[in-house]
Amino acid sequence: MSNAELIAEAGKIVDVAGKDAPLTVRGLTVSYGNKPAVFSIDASIPAGSMTAIIGPNGAGKSTFLKGTLGVVPRLSGEVRIFGKPFAEARDRVAYVPQRASVDWDFPARVIDVVLMGLYKSVGLFRFWRSRHREQAMECLERVGMADFSTRQIGQLSGGQQQRVFLARALAQNAEFYLLDEPFAGVDAATERAIVAVLKDLKAEGRTVVCVHHDLSTVAEYFDRVLLINVRRIAEGPVDTTFTAANLQETYGGRLATTHIDELRLA
Amino acid sequence: MSFLDYFIDALFLQAGYNSALVAIGAGLLGLAGGGAGAFIFLRKRALVSDAISHATLPGVGIAFILMVAFGGDGRWLPGLIIGSAVSSAIGLLLVEWITRQTRLTEDAAIGAVLSVFFGLGIVLLTIIQTMSSGRQAGLESFLLGSTAGMLISEATTIACAGALAAGFVFILRRPMTLVAFDPEYAATTGINVRYVDLAMMGLALIVTVIGLKIVGLILIVALLIIPSVTARFWTNQVGLMIGIAAVIGGLSGYVGAALSAAAASLPTGPIIVLVAFGFFVISALFSPLRGGLASAMRHWRFQRRVHRRQGLLALARREPIYDGLTLRILRHSGMIRRDGVATLRGRIASQKAARDEARWAMARRILSDDSAVERYDGLTPIEDMMTPDQIDEIDRVILDQNGAPA
Question: Where, if anywhere, are coiled coils annotated (chain A) (predicted)?
Fold first, then answer.
C-alpha cells in the first residue's frame, strides 16, 4: 500500500470511532534497538467499549500499550487520547502495568500502593487526609481486598497483587483504563473479581482495553478485539473480527486448527 | 584525660568549640545522606553513587589549580565543592549517556567512569604536590576525610547544604517513591522518570560534595547506603524507612565525629562508616521484623506450630499421638486432657485444622502456580492468606468433588 492509501485508510478508521474517541492511533512504530516491536499500527477504540489486544508472545501487545502512553519512546506515528495528545489527557487515563514489572519486596503496605493512585490529587507538599484513605479503602473494597489494607505487599499472592494494582488505577477515577495482562497467572476467583470490576467500569460508560492472552475467554469478556502481530492484523467487534481466518493470520502455525475450533468464534 | 572521658565530652559537645562544630556538621551530613540514600537503595542504583563520588576528584584538583592560578587560597572549601560538583555531574551524565547510547550495561559504564575519573584526579593531585605555590598540604584528606582544623565557615557550608538536601528529599519524596517502585506507571501519571532519576542522583551528588571534607570521597557511598539497608530491617513502610535511615545516618555522623575528635590520629570518614556498620550489625541481629534473632525465634515458634498442627490433625483423624513435644503443646494449650482425650476446644480446633488442610490441598491443585501456595507453610489459617471469594471458590470445587450438588 502506498503512503497515501495508508493515510486514507487510517482516516476511515478514525471516522468509525469519532474524533474524540478514547484512543486513536495512526502509524505507531516502536522499536527496541533497530528491530520494530510494533510496526505502523492503526487503531481506534470507541468510547464505552471493552477491547482485548490479542497476539502471540513477542507480538508487541504490551509495547503497543506502552507506546500509546509514552512509556517507551515512539519512533513514528500519532496517538490521540480523547482527541488530544496524551500529555493533555493524562488525568483521564489509568494504566495497570504487568504485575511482574515491579519488585514486590518494596517497603510498602497494600494501602500505600493504592494511595499512589492519588498522588496527583494530593499535591507535593500536603499530607494524606482521611478522605484520601477512605477513597483508597473504597477502591480496595471494590476488588475485595479491604481486609488486606495493612499487609506488606510482598506477602500477597499473585492474584491479590493484581487486585491491588487494579485498585490503584481505580483510585485515579479515570475514564479510560489500559491494563497489561491483568489475568496472567491469577486464580479463578481473582479473574472473576477483576472481570466484574471491568464490566462495572464499562457499565458506567468508561472505556477498557486489556492485553489478553487467553483466547477461550475473549468472547465472554470483551466486545471488541485488536489482533496484533508486530503489524495490525484486524480490529473490530468480536462478532465479526474474532474469526478463525484472522486468528490464523495472527498466530500463523503457532495455533493448531483444532484449538481454533474449540473457541467461541463468530 | 582518658580517651573515654574525651569521647563522652565530645558526645555532649563539651570537648571544645571545634569538636562540637564537626560533630553537628557530620550529624547533618549523615541525616541528608541517609534520607537521600534511601531512594537510591530502593531504586537499586547504589553503585551509581559510587561513580559520582569518585568522579569528584578531578574537580577538586582543577578547582585548586584554578584558585591558585588566580592568586586565591587553593583550599577555599566552597570553591572546591563547586569544582567537585561540576566534575561529578559530568561523570553522572557520562554514565547515563553511555548506558543509553551504547549497548553497555550500567555497571560497565559505572566501572569505566569511576576508574577513569579517579585516575585523572590522582594524577592532578600528584601534579599539585609538585607545584611550588599554594598550601597544597591536606588536599589528599579529601580521599578519606579529616576534621582537624575545620573552620566555622566550612561547618556552616556543610550544614546549609545538608539542610538543602533534606528539603529536596521532602519535596520529592512522592515522585521518587513512585519512580523507585514502579517507573512505568509513574511515567503514565506525568512524572518525568529521567528527571526524577537525575534529581535522585543530584541529591547523592550534593551529599557527596559536602561530605568530601568530613567523610572523604572513597567512603561517602557507605553513608548513602548503610543507613538505608539498616532501616529496611526495621520497617515495611517507605516513609518510615526514609526517616529511620536519616536518623541512623545522622547518629553515625555525630557519634563517629565525636569518636574521631577523641582520638585525633583516627581518620573521621572510616570511623563514621564503622559506627554506621555497628548500627547495621545490631539491626541485622536484633530487628524484630527481619533480624537474625527474630527469625531464630520465629523458627522456634514455627516448630511448635508444626507440632500443634500435626497433633490437631491426628485428633481430627482419631489417630494416636506419640510425640512427647506434641502432647505437651496440646496439653498446655488446653486441647487435650491429661489422659490424652480431646477437650471441647480441642475438638473445635482440630475440625478447623482438618478443614483448612482440605482447602489447602485443593488450593494447591487449582492454584498450582500462585505465589500464596508457594509460600504456604501448612499452618497459617487460610483466612489470613486468601480473600473470602478465593476461599468460596475452593469450597465450591471441594463440594463438586465430593459429588454434592454445586
Answer: none
User: Which of A157, A194, A197 is most worth mutating to test chain B (most B CB atoms within 10 A of its CB)?
Assistant: A157
Q: Is B387 in contact with A160 (Cβ distance < 8 A)?
A: yes
Size of interface A-B (CB pairs under 8 A): 113
Mutate to test the interface with B, among A68, A98, A187, A211 (most CBs of B within 10 A): A187
Residue-wise pLDDT tens digits, B174-221: 899 999 999 999 999 989 998 999 899 999 998 998 888 888 888 899
pLDDT score, position A257: 59
The DSSP bridge partners found for residue A211 are: A53, A180
Which chain B positions have a beta carbon within 8 Å of A188's beta carbon? 366, 393
Would you call A71 and B236 a contact, using CB atoms and an 8 Å cutoff? no
- Delimit the domains of chain A by residue range: 20-247
Residue B366's H or E segment, with its range, is helix B344-366
Measured between CB atoms, which of A97, A112, A144 is closest to B387? A144
Q: Do A157 and B370 touch (CB under 8 A)?
A: yes
CB contact under 8 A, B185 and A187: no
The strand pairing partners of A35, in sequence order, are: A32
Domain B3-289 has CATH 1.10.3470.10: yes
Q: How close A246 gets to chain B, by Cα (Å)?
A: 31
**CA A136 from centroid of its chain's CA atoms:** 21
Partner A contacted by B181 (CB < 8 A): yes
pLDDT tens per residue, range A90-121 = 999 999 999 989 999 999 999 999 999 998 87
Q: Assess contact for B326 and A147: CB atoms under 8 A.
A: no
What order of strands is seen across the sheet that includes strand A35-45?
A: A35-45, A23-32, A76-80
The answer to whether the Cβ–Cβ distance between B182 and A112 falls below 8 Å is no
Residue A160 touches partner B, C-beta closer than 8 Å = yes
The kind and range of the H/E element at B115 are helix B106-130
pLDDT one-digit tens code per residue, A144-170: 999 999 999 988 988 999 999 999 999
Cell 542522583 belongs to residue: B201
A146 to chain B, any CB pair closer than 8 A? The answer is no
For A63, name the nearest residue in chain B, comparing CA atoms only.
Answer: B184
What is the arrangement of strands in the sheet containing A93-96, beginning at the earlier edge strand?
A93-96, A176-180, A207-211, A50-54, A224-229, A231-237
**Domain parsing of chain B, residue ranges:** 3-289, 293-403
CATH architecture of the region A20-247: 3-Layer(aba) Sandwich (3.40)
B312's grid cell: 490437631
- Residues with Cβ within 8 Å of residue A100, at least 6 apart in sequence: none
